[in-house]
Amino acid sequence: MSEVRIAAEPRSEFGKGAARKIRRADKVPAVLYGHGIDPKHLTLPGHEVLLALRTPNVLIHLKGEGVDELALPKGVQRDPIKGFVEHVDLLLVKRGEKVTVEIPVTTVGDVHTDGLLDQQLVSIAVEAEATHIPTGVEVDVEGLEIGTAITAGQLKLPKGATLAADPEAVVLQVSAKPVEEPAEGEEAAEGEAPAETAEAPAE
Q1: φ, ψ for residue 164, nearest 5 deg
Q2: Strand 59-64 and strand 3-10: pairing?
Q3: How far apart, in whole angstroms, are the C-alpha atoms of residue 152 and residue 167?
Q4: Fewer Cβ close by (within 10 Å): the C or N end of the chain?
């Protein structure tokens, strides 16, 4: 995984008012923690942070006054309406260090025509070296029959990654497609004759 370099500035003002001031300048307040250090309060460029966070488990190289560290995003707060980043928690990591992260699970192929794919886990926890975190894991579901289930322990993880989740956890399974029932009133009951209209008696 490539590193994304982001300029970091030390932050000395706190509270909601200070945070709003930072955001108005198109920047993001952040906190760097881990490895027993005192948390470092930082200000990061908003647009660069937004672009970096498009990559799952992106490795960020923070460079600036008093900081030259590698970090992984561990908590991201976004505006619920506009979607911009309001705050980021960053975990300090070291080269060669093992970290536990969630990576996305994607599927390729199509299950048997009579089956329906039910993916119960869209991500899985793995342990990997901090600077070589895999982008995800693929599962080939081509032609899988009804009743087939794939557990976390059966996933073919990328090189260097080991499973950190329950190996018995079901990632996906193939179930039978639901039977479609005819629409109400679409068919008359078999053998049912239409009701006859009684004739009025002659006067």
Answers
A1: -120, 10
A2: parallel
A3: 5
A4: C
